[in-house]
Amino acid sequence: MAEKTDVRAALRDAILRGVYAPRQRLIEAELAEEYGASRFVLRNALISLAAEGLVELQPNRGARVREITVAEAIEITEIRRAVEAIVAGRAAENITDDQIVLLRGIEADMRAAVEQNELVRYSELNASLHGTLRDIAGHTAATRILEQLNGQMVRHQFRLFLVPGRPSVSLPEHLAIVEAVCSRDPEAASAAMAAHVGSVIGTLTELASEQRSGGHATAL
């Protein structure tokens, strides 16, 4: 069981980091050798990742990295909006004084990253903020759902930060979330999070429209 878990985790991490590109074939024999696992264990890992939406299993053709279209990304983010709002509200109910200090530190780092135009750093801090809110909320089911949704969205999420001006738009949205959570106001926290994720949906919708008008593929 440990071998299966380790291979699945390693392969999942590689997909999320872009080691394997969308639609790239995942050949069992090669992966089994690369990860030092049996083909049985490797196959089970691929089945598990397919259930998570990261891998596509093709009859008689094996597996490949699943391609997520912008249209799918929008639908995923609509679900994420509802779940993230629950998390933010619960975090506002649970937050301790020490955790307030932690969130304020992330807030300050996000401000600095935008001021210095450090897009990769801002993307990392965004993930840190949302992860910290999940930890504070302690909502096990919501965390499990979001981890799966975010895994499918990772390429689109990074692309959002490359949209000109997007970090400057999302920063005040994040600051509003932090303020509401640190003020221990669950309703305001949920509303601020819903507004932020709604803004993400709006940007994704604009990207989809631009791609359609330009005749480009709508997937990453």
From TrEMBL:
PANTHER family: GLUCONATE OPERON TRANSCRIPTIONAL REPRESSOR (PTHR43537:SF24), TRANSCRIPTIONAL REGULATOR, GNTR FAMILY (PTHR43537). Signal peptide: none annotated. Residues 1-68 form the HTH gntR-type domain. This is DNA-binding transcriptional regulator, GntR family. The keyword Kinase does not apply. One of its GO terms (molecular function) is DNA-binding transcription factor activity. InterPro entries: GntR_C, TF_FadR/GntR_C, Tscrpt_reg_HTH_GntR, WH-like_DNA-bd_sf, WH_DNA-bd_sf. It comes from Microbacterium saccharophilum. Keywords: DNA-binding, Transcription, Transcription regulation. It comes from the Bacteria. Pfam families: FCD (PF07729), GntR (PF00392).
